[in-house]
Amino acid sequence: MTAANSAPAPLDRIRVGSAPDSWGVWFPDDPQQVPWERFLDEVSEAGYEWIELGPYGYLPTDPARLTEEVNKRNLKVSAGTVFTALHRGPGVWDSTWEHVSDVAELTQAMGAKHLVVIPSFWRDDKTAEIIEPPELTGEQWAHLTKGMERLGHEVRERFGLDIVVHPHADTHIDTETHVERFLDSTDSDLVNLCLDTGHYAYCGGDSVKLIETFGERIGYLHLKQVDPEILADVVKNEVPFGPAVQRGVMCEPPAGVPALEPVLAAAQRLGVDLFAIVEQDMYPCPPDKPLPIAVRTRKFLRSCGA
C-alpha cells in the first residue's frame, strides 16, 4: 500500500477546535485554573483554530477586548455555554434567561452560531452531594422539554443562535434512554444535540449508533474519551462525576473509548458542517499538563483526517 492511498479520507465537513475545559477550566474564576491568557496562548500553539467561550466570565466578556485577544492568536469562537435547570418549571425562566442572554450576546458578538446548553446537575458540582432525584417525574420532563423549546425559540429570535443540548453525566439527560426520550419529546426545528462522545460513553451510550439513528438532530460534537478500566470501577462503586474526573476517567485519545475514527466518519457521512470540539475533563490539573496533551490530540485528529 502506498502512502497516498493509506491516508485517511479527509473529514472536510468537520471543524476541529478545543475549549477551556481541556485546560482544566470548569469555573469562571478558580485559583486552581490557568489564567485565560495562558489558555489562549496554548490552544493556539497546539494548532487549534476554533475555541469555545467556556464558563462565562473566564474569558473577557467585553466583545471588543475578546475579539482583539482571539484575533491576535488567529482563533475564532464556535460557541458559548450555559447551564439551565428548566425541569424546575416556569418559575426559573427569568433567572435562566438573564444568564442565557448575557452568554448569547457575547457569543453572537464573537460571530459564533451555537449555544451549548447543559442541564443542571443533580449533584453539587463541588461537593458531589446529591441535591435532586436522578430521575425526573413526568411533569418535570414536560417542563424540561417545553422549556428547552422555548429557549431555542427565544435564542434564535433574539440572537440568531441555535441551541444544542449537551447530554452530561450526573444530569437528567445522560443515558441512551434519557437522550432518546428527550429527542423524541422536542421539536427538531428548535432543539438539537451537542453529542459529547465521552459523556455518552460514560453513561453507557453508543455515539456511532446515536449519529446513525438521530443524524438530523446532531448539531455539534464534543470529542472526548473515557478510560474503560477506571469507568468500570466508577460505575461499580457509584463514584460521582467530579471525583471520577479526578481519578482520570476522561483520558487522552486514542487511549480510551469510544474510538473516535468511526465517530468522526459517521459524522462526516451526515453531509453537514459540524464543529468537533475537544474537551478532556481534568479539573483540577497541574498547569503544565494540558498543552502537551492538546498538541498530541491535535496530531491524532489530523491522523484521522480532521
Automatic annotation (TrEMBL):
Q: Which GO terms describe its molecular function?
A: myo-inosose-2 dehydratase activity
Q: Which PANTHER family match?
A: HYDROXYPYRUVATE ISOMERASE, INOSOSE DEHYDRATASE
Q: What class of enzyme is it?
A: lyase
Q: Which residues form the Xylose isomerase-like TIM barrel domain?
A: 40-303
Q: Which domain of life is it from?
A: Bacteria
Q: Which UniProt keywords apply?
A: Lyase
Q: Read off the InterPro entries from this record.
A: IolE/XylAMocC-like, Xyl_isomerase-like_sf, Xyl_isomerase-like_TIM-brl
Does Lyase show up as a keyword for this record? yes
Gene3D superfamilies xrefs: Divalent-metal-dependent TIM barrel enzymes (3.20.20.150)
SUPFAM superfamilies on file: Xylose isomerase-like
- Does this entry carry the keyword Lyase? yes
Q: What is its EC number?
A: 4.2.1.44
Q: What is this protein called?
A: Inosose dehydratase
Write down the Pfam families for this protein, in alphabetical order.
AP_endonuc_2 (PF01261)
